[in-house]
Amino acid sequence: MIAEPTLLSRSVQKENSVVDVSSCASVHHVSSERNENRQKTVRGKRKARECSENAKRKRSKSSNGNLGRAETELKNGDVEAVTLFEVVSMGRSAMQAVVDDWIDAYTVDRDTALLDLISFFIQCSGCKGMVTAEMFQSKQGTDVMSKMVEDLDEDTGLQFKKFLAFPWILTVTWPLDMDSGEYPLIMSGLYWKRFRSHFCEFVSVLVAQCQNSVIFDGYLLNTLISLLTELSDSRVRAFRHTCTLAAVKLLSALVNVALNLSVSVDNSQRLYEVELAKMASKRASQRLDRIQRKISELQDRKFEIENMMDAIFKGVLLKRYRDVIPEIRAICMEELMVWMKLYSSVFLNDSYLKYVGWMMHDKQPDVRLKCVLGLQGLYQDQSSSKMDLFTIRFKERMISLTLDKDHEVAIQAVRLLMVMSQSCEDVLSPDDHKNIFQFVYCSHRPLAITAGEFLYNRLLCNPELSRPREGASDQDRHRELVLARVRSLIHFHTESELHQHVLYLVDSLWDSAGSLLKDWTGLTSLLLPHTSCQEQALSNAEEAFVIELMLASVRQAAEGPPLSGRGAGKKVISTKEKKLQTDVCATLTEHFIKVLPELLSKYSEDAEKLTSFLRIPQFFQTDSCDLENSQYVQALLAELEAVVDRHTDAGLLETAARSYQSLCAQDSPWHSLARPTFDRLIQHWTNTLGTWLEESLSSGCFTASEDNTLEILSTLKKLTAFNIAQDLSKWSLYELGTKLLEAEIKHGGLPMEVTVEALRCMCSCVLWKLNTFGEGVTSRESSLQQRNQLRAFCEKCHRCLSHAEQLVREQAFMCLSDVLIAHNYQLQMWDSTAGTPLLYTPDPKLQKALLSFVLEHVFTSPELDTPSSKVSESECGEGRLEDLHRRRNLLASYCKLIVHSVLEMSMAAEVFKQYVKYYNDFGDIIKETLNRTRQMDKIESARTLVQCLQQLYLRLKQEQDRGNTCSSRVQTYSSIKELARRFSLTFGWDQIKSRESLAMIHRDGIEFVFKGFVQQSEKHSPPHISYLTILSEFSGKLLKLDKKTIYSYLQKFAGEQVISNREESWMPLIYYRASLMGTAEGEDATSFISSDTNKQPSLTNRSRSPSIKQVNSEGDQRFLSPSTESKGNKGLKSCEDSKVHAAALSREQRSSSLVSDKGPRSSDEVDVDTVDIDV
Question: Where in the sequence does UniProt note compositional bias of the Polar residues kind (predicted)?
């Protein structure tokens, strides 16, 4: 709570008297009345405190003695007085009147009024203490100055600051907790944010109202400046922050006074010159003298104000601009920039600018931001001539701020350089411009937009580009301007060599260069034949850029930001923006539906450019279109048909299929025109393919000529591309593909490309069937028919997995993955009311074939060919990247089959084995698969890891028994141990979440080692005992309670004598035991291995009650699962009993219990409410 200092004594003693300005909070329970005075209420605006000590003081003087208090009428007729702090807190309405009342009170009793003002600043600092003032009249100045301290009073336990604010020695006392408490300037909420603005306004209003009266009395401002200077140098942050803000705002107000005085001096000087220019007979000497005296008086006042400003600057800003608090540094820089802008004749010079340059290196972004924003204002005011030296000295720093880690600082730095470039043409070199322009490709969109604005203003708005050719028409002039701007953009894009996507450049320029990018008429005029001179014709590369630029602008207008890598998500646009976007889309639709047929006809032979043009219909605004453009639509459809008949490029066909889908949509106004055309086109291709297949497969095998094969392949590519975009099931494409695959399976001879396209076509048909299956009520017959089709397709793909061509094998694998995952999804989303579901499970042979395919085609090391030259080395590198991308796709498809439960989870064991060996290539995919399977079933996932490790271990043992230790197919023991360590890291830090899985891993590992083992001698050990060293990698993830539980389970199999055996053959068991017990007791595992066989580990912490269940004499221990929490009460009671019993045991008995047949009974830092687990 912020208390209010009050004046305890109005009579100011003139010689070494004491006046206390104390708060109610500083009085420690003096009376019940003061306790009640400490309560206050804040609702909306700050209300006046009731019954406060200040408010109830009755004054014998008139209202001029209010001393800065505003009087308000209450309902009962009483008069309530509030302090300056309360008035400022309440808002602006009473502030003007309060300042006027304070000035009136100051003229009556300046000491008392000034003390009220001093208490106001102390209270605004959040001080809950007391202010004491005594007059400074001692002539022993050195003795007094030596007492100016800030320290802790050990007797009272209060902090105090004693300083000189002439003519007083002020002592401020406050509690110790003020350093850690909040104060008004940093408190959150709208109320305190308004308080800050009101506080700053109060200082400005105070100086403004006093500028013609008491400000020059040599008393008010001197005392105030001394107060603020001393408090701004305090060790207490609240005083330092508040008084620094007040001091710089005071200087800003004095700047306004100095400006007014400068205006008055100029006006008086002009008046003096006019009077002096009169004839001697008409000249009034008295008037001249009066004007001259006024000028001298105004100049003296201005000089006095400047001295005050200099005192504040040297006393406050020079000390605080390097304050440890970034808010204080930011305040200093912000106000310094204001002074430079308002009073440039004094402050705008290198002696002040150097502080701004230095603070641009500040560690806090807010301080750097204030400097950059202030410099923008200075350069905009055409003050660069006074800043030449500063610009030369700090230009590199301003350019480097564009790379600032804070995005806002970087944005404003680019704007600063933009302003500098506009105000001074040669301040930035071409290399500087080039470096700044590169930000149009950065991932942060606001920074890219700012750089785009800079690029547009610098390159595209160059006056030299807009010089028209003499005698040219308006249309030609516009075309020449567009051409010049586009060529400038092409030059920048080709020179940057940073990004190949024009889409990001368009996104950066969209807000600033929208007039150019939305000028589709001008852009298309550059591509169409024109009657102007041929010198303006575009080259092939320039045409490609214009087409890409036009396509990017169409996409930006239709969809808008954000792009991939720019922005976190889809932007929610307002109704106004939506309407504007709709209007722009309608405009581009109306333009391109007329121009696009001509463009398609001109570039009919260029597949790459046609692909860009064919994307434009996908952005048409069909809602705003009517049937008046039907002739243009028919021309567009005719050109589309001609394009797809002529070309077989996969990208072009896919884009054309999407465009047909957009034109044939049910809500499209051109559906009646586009749909029949589309149907005729598909029917024509289907009939053509059927005819060719009848001729080629007449004898049961494929016997087509080379030309016929090309026709079949091109037609099949077109049908496949269109079938992926739309459902073409009614044209029986599946049956056509079946004929080709059956001929290949039975007789062979089918070209590889035809086989791949047949697989893709059939796969898309099956996927469409699965997508539409279940839309209505399905009968059992339809379900059986669909299942037979699915089974037949999977069998054909299974046969193709052993095809001689690798591309065919990979395509068959991808088709199988897609179909099986789609079928699984269809089962999960099946509605029981839709009838009989489609049930299909891949047979074991198919599952094994999929696994074998992955092992053969994914986990293979590519052969390293020695490159003969740099070109071949580059091509080899690109080929390896493509090969890696292909293998990653295959592995991801197989992992999706496991994640979607198409394949059993145990099928992932072979994939997990490769985690370490192929970590750089597939580590992310395998790790994500492991996490997904753990989310599905954590126990089964852990069992898969156990299976993986045990299979690798057994394979290694078999190779070692055969004497073959150099096989590259077998992982070494260290690699298996490293794999176990990597598996353990995937369990994360949440031990409670994974305790069941880890317990199962240890249980299966112990059983695997001691299965069927019967000890015949001391040196005789289990054959798989070295597996325990691998198993120990999972011990670090166990809870301490579970470590003891697992150790007891180990005793059940090994026995105490075996565990105590120190023979070399038993070292893995000792190591495993150390991993369970050593870390649990805070001892290093190696100490257990090297310790004496007869020495048992000592317990270091037995103070806590164990929650471990006692083990019976036979060692048969049962572990409870978390589902048995209902038995917690009994467990707690038994734990308490065991705690009492354990307290009665001696140290030796408790130590020996570690190796007894009852298992571990130590109580090492285990919570009582911990639940045991079932191993």
Answer: 1087-1126
Alpha carbons 391 and 846: distance in angstroms, whole number: 74
Please answer whether residues 1166 and 1112 qualify as being in contact, where contact means their C-beta atoms are separated by less than 8 angstroms: no
Annotate 741-780 with DSSP letters as a single string: HHHHHHT----HHHHHHHHHHHHHHHHHHHHHTTSSPBPH
**pLDDT over 70 percentage in the chain:** 74
Residues 6+ positions from 525 with CB-CB distance below 8 Å: 479, 482
Over range 374-392, report the average pLDDT. 86
Over range 443-457, report the average pLDDT.
93
Alpha-carbon distance 764 to 726, whole Å? 10
> What is the spatial distance between Cα 184 and Cα 165, in angstroms, rounded to a whole number?
24
Percent of the chain with pLDDT over 90: 43
Note whether 597 and 636 are within 8 A (CB). yes
Nearest to 25 by CA among 115, 126, 163, 121: 126
CA–chain centroid gap for 899, Å, is 29
> 627 phi and psi, to 5 degrees?
-85, 5
CA distances from 1076 to 1006, 1013, 1031, 1058 (A): 13, 22, 11, 16
Give the count of beta carbons closer than 10 Å to the beta carbon of residue 944: 23
What's the CA gap between 169 and 148, in Å, rounded? 9
**pLDDT in the model for residue 812:** 95
* C-alpha pair distances (Å), 701 with each of 162, 215, 686, 743: 108, 110, 20, 5
pLDDT in tens, 980-1008: 999 999 998 888 888 899 999 999 999 99
Beta bridge partners of 973: none
Tokens of 72: 């308000």
Least confident of 23-27, 953-957, 995-999: 23-27
* Closest to 750 (Cα-Cα) out of 797, 804, 790: 804
Joined tokens for residue 618: 């996908």
Does the pLDDT of residue 82 top 80, yes or no?
no
Tokens of 131: 């202010």
Q: Of the candidates 941, 951, 944, which has an alpha carbon nearest to the alpha carbon of residue 994?
A: 941
Ramachandran quadrant class, 382 (left: phi over 0; alpha: psi -120 to 50; beta: rest): left
pLDDT at 59: 36
Decide: 655 and 644 in contact? Cβ < 8 Å.
no
